[in-house]
Amino acid sequence: MKGIIYTKDIYREIVPKIIQDEASWSSFLNFSAVHYQMGFENASLLYAQRPDARMVETYSGWREKGRYVRRGSKGIAIIDSSHYRPYVDHVFDIADTNGRGRPEIWRLDKENEKEILSLLHAKSGNVQGYVREAVESEIYGRDKNYIENISDLCRCHDSQNPEHIYDITKAVIQSAQYMAAVRIRAEPPPVSSLLPVLATAPRLMVYGLCSTALSVAGQVLKGIEQVFEIKREKQRVAIEKGTEKEQRIGRSDKSTEKGTAGHGIPAIRHQPHQDADTHKRQGNGSHKGIEKAGYEQLSLSFDGGYAFCDCGKAL
Predict the structure, then answer these.
(1) In the chain, what are the helix, strand and coil shares in percent, each to the nearest 5?
(2) pLDDT score recorded for residue 54
(3) What is the pLDDT of residues 78-90, one digit of tens each?
(4) Could you give the CA distance from residue 115 to residue 125 in angstroms, rounded to a whole number?
């Protein structure tokens, strides 16, 4: 219980600092772009305790990835809400680990930009355009509840004006676009439009709007990550097929050599120096599947009044 109270205090102290001005909010979104698989609550906790963290995992998670947490390393407190009763868990930054294994991090650059955009079925031909369309498609999606949650948050705090709700939604979209653009190294839009809303909004509304912005951006980035995983899997299968083909050709060449004598004349099968049982088959080695690097997205509302807003959960 003490651990939960401690993390609540950290969370409540860091949120006002995150939203105090444009520089602070931009800095937090830059940080969250790296840790996009976390929800707003745990990203805030991580930012408060270890703002220089690059990649985090649990102790057992690092072991599965072939790395080991160094003795004496201090864990970073987060909340695991994946169970019926939330509890405090600890993660460790990659800087606190040793080992040969290192999770592969996907990168969007000029060399693979066109291919990835094609696999994403992007209407726009550049990453800036894709960020805009992907974030708007996510937040306005028919099977999503983002707009409904934003409207509920506004109604709960006497903001029922449709134009006001629309303006708040656009401000959330801009912050989500900023975070997604930073991760894929595109030109980000300004984020100042959300700050006036957060500055005057009640605490629970602040939590809900921030959670929505990070959730939308996180879903867009996870979609890009999935495309990279599909691409890597295709490359792995192609390499396997190429290796098998080379093995078949090698066996065929070996068989041809042993099946001839002299200048291409077929060898007599029953000659004493010949061994009729010379052909051996080589088995295809087993291949391990690609490990998914990353951290399962978590979400927990520390205040029950905002329990209906589930937009921070992993979909």
Answers:
(1) 55, 5, 40
(2) 94
(3) 998 878 888 899 9
(4) 11
